[in-house]
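Allow me, if you will, to draw on your knowledge of protein folds for a short while. I am sending you one protein, given as its amino acid sequence and as whole-number tokens for its backbone shapes. Kindly check, if you would, that the fold set down in the tokens agrees with what the sequence suggests. The record follows directly beneath this note:
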Amino acid sequence: MASILVCYGTGEGQARKVARRIGGALEDLGHGVAVVDADDCPPDFDLERFDAVLVGGSVHAGRNQASVRTFAAANRTALLGRPSGFFQVSRFSAAPDEGRQALAASIADDLFAETGWYPDLLGLFGGAIRYSMYGYVKRQMVRWWARRTTGDTDTSRDYEYTDWDAVSRFAADFAEFVERELSDPADGDAIDRDERPDVVEELTHP
């Protein structure tokens, strides 16, 4: 059994839902899990008591939350020294066109370049439109985006785009990876942690 931290940042609550779903799936697989909001993780948060770490967040104004970026940068060495993964929740990943999906991937890449942390596994998931939480200006901006992508322009209701089966598969993939790394970190098939940028590309989860 591994001890796993799931640290997330959220704006409207969808990344929290994803983090909790991942945490539950990891617990079902027999691991000890702590699911913590990045706002409650100070920069000097002790990661030494965790065997592996998953970090996640949602995209707003083209970036991940400041709390997620700060956590990743402050804990870069500890993250690189153990199995780690990153999941990102955004409307871009829910869009049907490849251009916007590629934009979602590039936002994650920007986080890695900014913090110097390259995780072992990456999950990109669709987010949500929560018209009920928006003021007038943001509601109209999101409606404009939806008209050109998903078509979900009814502002009297909210929309959720997260593929929960994909989230569960991501959790299972991460658990399998962690178990393999911890069982025999010297195995020739284990990831070379000096090659993190290439590893992220190879293990990107669909």
